[in-house]
Design a protein that fits this description.
alpha+beta; SH3 type barrels; six-stranded antiparallel sheet; about 15% strand
Amino acid sequence: MEGVIYKTLSSAEAKELNIQTQGPKESEAFVSAFLKRCLPGLREEVIQERLNRKAVILEHSVKQKKKQKRKRRKGLSAKEKRQLRLFEIKAEQQRYNLFLPLHNLWKQYIRDLCNGLRADTQPQMIQTKLLKADLHGSLVTVKKSKCPSYVGLSGIIVQETKHIFKIITKDDKLKAVPKCNTVFSVEVDDFISYIYGSRFQLRSSERSAKKFKMKGSIDL
């Protein structure tokens, strides 16, 4: 039986298998249709050629699914954040006492950053640490400004952007003070440092990686 693809069953075999016998034409048509379904990529002439020469290996055709690139979910843009008012401090939250715990945490943060503030601690070292420190919660005072109305303003920094400090004052008012042309003082445990806003126009996240150069003189 080697090399036989299909043949007519005898009446005894058909009776044993409980099937209805078919003639050679029906059997050939069935086999041809079956091979076309199993080998969709081959033409009929090629299938017939292979039947005449050798056995046919049936393969299951699987369509390769294209890998879809996973889209990285982008965060909100600055415009969308402004529209949603994510960083807006509501009027009922603009109270100095609410931010005193933040100020106390900031003072402890600076003490740890400077390995303790002792009497023999070098002021230059504190100044260097403050340049790269997060100032949210610090108590600052405007010492000099080209806008006289800002001079003497004091409060806790509750928000910082590239160009402004938002300060909550002791009389529960939220003030936006521009960094440009303004000198701020920061006091921690009797150590006073000065921040020249014109040289400080960076976001806090960018400031931590910036290398500051010593300047001989700084003008407002």
